[in-house]
Amino acid sequence: MTTKTKYSEFLTPENAVLAMIDHQTGLMVGLGDEHPTVLKNSIMGLIRTAKAIDLPSVVTASLPDGPNGPIMPEIPEVLGVDVIERAGQINAWDSADFRGAIEQTGRKKIIMAGIVTDVCLLFPALSAVEEGYDVYAVIDASGTWNKTVQEVTIQRLTQAGVKVTTWASVLAELMNDWRSDYGDSLGRVLAEHTTKYGYVMNSYFAKG
């Protein structure tokens, strides 16, 4: 009899929490691994996925009154949550408020995105894995200085057992079945935030 492990168990709306880490305006202006419009679209797709299924979500920022700047306003607006402002910890997992908000959900699978990928995403992902969490690093909703930094970070994440993924893959995993209660709402998120598949979805919705 096969026993499921965290590597074969899928995300569900009941077992996961979303963590959006340091998507701050002062950090985003220096990103070079993805076009800003594409990155923003991926971020919006991820948070609207979470909103569509009422997924518990935690948003944090490091020194938002300093050079890092405030969080993208769309993130707390869409998710309907307050931003946890850290006093200065670089690794968000070192913040008792952030870690406590994750723990309070009682969920062990963390869908995590952050800017910059090699710090804001990497460090808490490594720390969470060490404490027994199953972390999904959403690379296309994260960003860093250039492709080399992104590629090196992905290797370190996978070495630690973090699941590297994309926002649309997360959406599909959470939906699981087009006939689910979330099929229509998640399908509309796909239609609005994936250009090519969006054409397919828009044609389908137009028939209705």
Automatic annotation (TrEMBL):
<keyword id="KW-0456">Lyase</keyword>
<feature type="domain" description="Isochorismatase-like">
    <location>
        <begin position="18"/>
        <end position="168"/>
    </location>
</feature>
<dbReference type="GO" id="GO:0016829">
    <property type="term" value="F:lyase activity"/>
</dbReference>
<dbReference type="InterPro" id="IPR036380">
    <property type="entry name" value="Isochorismatase-like_sf"/>
</dbReference>
<protein>
    <submittedName>
        <fullName>Hydrolase YcaC</fullName>
        <ecNumber>4.-.-.-</ecNumber>
    </submittedName>
</protein>
<dbReference type="Pfam" id="PF00857">
    <property type="entry name" value="Isochorismatase"/>
</dbReference>
<dbReference type="InterPro" id="IPR000868">
    <property type="entry name" value="Isochorismatase-like_dom"/>
</dbReference>
<dbReference type="GO" id="GO:0016787">
    <property type="term" value="F:hydrolase activity"/>
</dbReference>
<keyword id="KW-0378">Hydrolase</keyword>
<dbReference type="InterPro" id="IPR053152">
    <property type="entry name" value="Hydrolase_YcaC-like"/>
</dbReference>
